[in-house]
Amino acid sequence: MPCPKVLVVDDSRTVRTIVSRSLTSAGYEVTCATDGQEALSLLESVCPQLIVLDIEMPLMDGYDVCQAIQEMGPPWSLPTGHLPYKHLQPRVGITGHTNGCLHPQAHP
Predict the structure, then answer these.
(1) What are phi and psi of 27, to 5 degrees?
(2) Among 11, 65, 79, 103, which residue's CB has the most CB atoms within a 10 Å radius?
(3) Nearest-angstrom CA–CA distance, 87 and 26
(4) What CATH number has the domain bearing residue 61?
(5) Pair 14, 22: CB distance under 8 Å
(6) Domain carrying residue 43
(7) Which residue has better confidence, 25 or 108?
(8) Ramachandran quadrant class, 81 (left: phi over 0; alpha: psi -120 to 50; beta: rest)
(9) What is the DSSP letter of 96?
């Protein structure tokens, strides 16, 4: 049985490393992107079952990426989780859920 695929999107190399190592050790196949535009360009080749997004990134933030993915419709209407900075937590509860984010989480 193939491993579930996860796309991790964060402009911080440290966060990408921590999250990808944790998910890989839990049995997931992980692909990383450094920004939102790269994430969108990887969707077809990676075909992830889950996307983990940072909120604050250059070029395209996590909210915009999530909204763009949701607007693509099937098959891209998939679970997306944001990795916001702590000071953005109040905003995530409102904006994250309206853009398709299922479970906003604090940065590791």
Answers:
(1) 100, 10
(2) 65
(3) 29
(4) 3.40.50.2300
(5) no
(6) 5-98
(7) 25
(8) beta
(9) I
Q: What is the DSSP string of 8-53?
A: EE-S-HHHHHHHHHHHHHTT-EEEEESSHHHHHHHHHHH--SEEEE
Q: Which residue has the higher pLDDT, 76 or 44?
A: 44
* 54 strand-pairing partners: 83
DSSP character for 88? G
Distance CA 105, CA 53 (A): 10
Kind plus residue range of the DSSP H or E element containing 90: helix 89-91
- The verdict on residue 26 lying in a domain is yes
How many residues are listed for the chain in this entry? Answer: 108
pLDDT, tens digit (0-9, with 9 covering 90-100), for 2-20: 889 999 999 999 999 999 9
Which among 51, 93, 103 is positioned nearest to 72, based on CA atoms?
Answer: 51
Place of tokens 């990134």: 57
Give SS3 for 4: coil
